[in-house]
């Protein structure tokens, strides 16, 4: 084999940062040494791995084919090195991208469990909407994602973690708050503040309304759940949010969960990863401990 682990590490870092100069900084190499290692690798393999568009580097077909295989070799090399230094196999850093509900209500407890039982495993966390989480996993930016609802991308593997449900909320002063039940016609007449397009909560809500209400009066859209809660608490709006994000406010009487008997808004929280990704004991450890945590909390699986 004529290529080296160093060349593969340079390739992976350029693929991740999409820039030779950024890759050089991250690897503590000179830019010329980084460029030379990449050019030597392309010459040895006989294929261009990147399309160079100004300072931006985009993977070619061959670069996309090579990336998961290069990551496998680099990961195996890391495990060999750690093994000879008597380090636990569950050690190193894993990058996770998660939606807001999971990040706020489930991941803090999971991270505490990991810190206690696997102190050499470090979790790098990003909090995004569901579509961006899928993008991060698909584009190799994260090894593990957590989303609400389904992902239909054939490149993504999906495993259900647990279930939750959405609720429609109103201020305690809203006219609907006093009703025993609310009809679809009344929902259609209301003003709504909702999560942005691409959010798992928004996708689940629109799926539940599909074929029932076609033209909802969406007044505002925001990424931040706290903004939506405050708008509903202080204004004439309705919103649809995960129960975990509003239960404390409902219990304090600040918000009211409306009863819409015909509306089913149960959904899943799922782990996702690239279907062609390498075996990863860090990812497997996270999934295993997460499932155990849900069972211990007696939440619905």
UniProtKB/TrEMBL annotation:
Keywords: DNA-binding, Transcription, Transcription regulation. The keyword Ligase does not apply. PROSITE patterns: HTH_LYSR. Residues 1-60 form the HTH lysR-type domain. GO terms for molecular function: DNA-binding transcription factor activity; transcription cis-regulatory region binding. Belongs to the LysR transcriptional regulatory family. PANTHER family: HTH-TYPE TRANSCRIPTIONAL REGULATOR (PTHR30126), LYSR FAMILY TRANSCRIPTIONAL REGULATOR (PTHR30126:SF94). This is Transcriptional regulator, LysR family.
């Amino acid at each position: 084999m004529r290529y080296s682990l160093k060349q593969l590490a340079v390739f992976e870092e350029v693929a991740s940062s999409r820039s030779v100069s950024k890759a050089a900084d991250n690897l503590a190499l000179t830019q010329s040494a980084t460029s030379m290692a990449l050019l030597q690798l392309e010459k040895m393999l006989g294929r261009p791995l990147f399309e160079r568009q100004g300072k931006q580097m985009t993977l070619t077909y061959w670069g996309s084919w090579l990336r998961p295989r290069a990551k496998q070799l680099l990961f195996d090399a890391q495990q060999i090195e750690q093994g000879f230094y008597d380090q636990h196999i569950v050690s190193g850093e894993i990058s996770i991208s998660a939606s807001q509900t999971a990040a706020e209500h489930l991941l803090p407890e999971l991270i505490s469990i990991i810190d206690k039982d696997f102190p050499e495993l470090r979790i790098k966390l990003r909090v995004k909407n569901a579509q961006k989480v899928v993008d991060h996993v698909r584009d190799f930016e994260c090894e593990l994602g957590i989303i609400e609802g389904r992902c239909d991308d054939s490149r993504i593997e999906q495993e259900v973690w647990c279930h939750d449900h959405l609720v429609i909320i109103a201020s305690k002063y809203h006219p609907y708050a006093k009703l025993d039940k609310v009809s679809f016609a009344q929902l259609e007449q209301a003003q709504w503040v909702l999560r942005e397009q691409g959010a798992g909560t928004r996708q689940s809500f629109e799926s539940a309304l599909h074929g029932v209400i076609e033209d909802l009066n969406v007044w505002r859209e925001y990424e931040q759940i706290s903004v939506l809660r405050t708008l509903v608490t202080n204004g004439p709006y309705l919103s649809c949010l995960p129960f975990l994000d509003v239960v404390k406010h409902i219990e304090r009487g600040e918000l009211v969960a409306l009863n819409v008997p015909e509306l089913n808004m149960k959904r899943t929280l799922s782990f996702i990863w690239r279907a062609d990704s390498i075996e990863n004991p860090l990812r497997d450890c996270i999934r295993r401990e997460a499932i155990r945590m849900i069972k211990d909390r007696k939440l619905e699986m």
